[in-house]
Amino acid sequence: MHPDAIQRRRISATTARSGRYDAGVSLRFADQPLIFLDVDGPLIPLKARPLAQEHRSRTPIGSTGNPLLDRLAPQDGHRLLALGCPLAWATTWGTDANEIISPRLALPELPVVDWPDDDEEPQHGLHWKTMYLIHWAAGHPFVWLDDEITDTDRRWTAAHHPERALLRRVDPYLGLTPADFAVIHDWLRQG
């Protein structure tokens, strides 16, 4: 699907930090890069993290029944907020990310990228999220944290996005690590 064919979505959510997001951009943080977050892999790694019990999420699993939620690391929420950039969910969890993941990471309600109902596969190995995230970023710099990013996505983004973008592939077995946050901090300082 050609990027121009993607219907622009207006997505708004109220957050404790910045007020209103509109089309992915917070008015308060309009000069800051957006940070798109995937859940499975970056925040919920495939392997259990070697964390002491006191550092694990203290929010009870409740009715979700998902034992993998114990792999969330609450410090990830604090580290993400400390970046000082607007955050948005870029995950197939959709609005469930705000209901289930945000409280466990002490994150406010975040805007959610609403994926279109499109069964058309992107061409040439491009990840199905790539074109939609570039469109959602609306010409603003952004960071995308996902475990399925490839060099194809990086090249396509460089060719089709007018601003800086950091597409950071997170190791799905480890989740976000201090090394990932160091790369993000370095990239933000270069901006």
Walk me through what this model shows.
The protein is of the alpha/beta class. It has one domain: 3-Layer(aba) Sandwich (Rossmann fold). Helices cover 26% and strands 13% of the residues. It is built from five helices and seven strands, in the order ββββαβααβαβα. It has a four-stranded parallel sheet with strand order 5-4-6-7, with helices on both faces. A three-stranded antiparallel sheet has the order 1-2-3, with no helix packed on it. The two termini are 31 Å apart. The N terminus is likely disordered.
CATH architecture: 3-Layer(aba) Sandwich
How are the strands of the biggest sheet laid out side by side?
A: 5-4-6-7
Q: Structural class of the helices, strands and pairings?
A: alpha/beta
Q: What is the CATH domain class?
A: Alpha Beta
Main sheet: strands, sense, barrel = 4 strands, parallel
Order of helices and strands: EEEEHEHHEHEH
Mean pLDDT: 81
Unreliable stretches covering 5 or more consecutive residues: 1-28, 52-57
Total tally of structural domains = 1
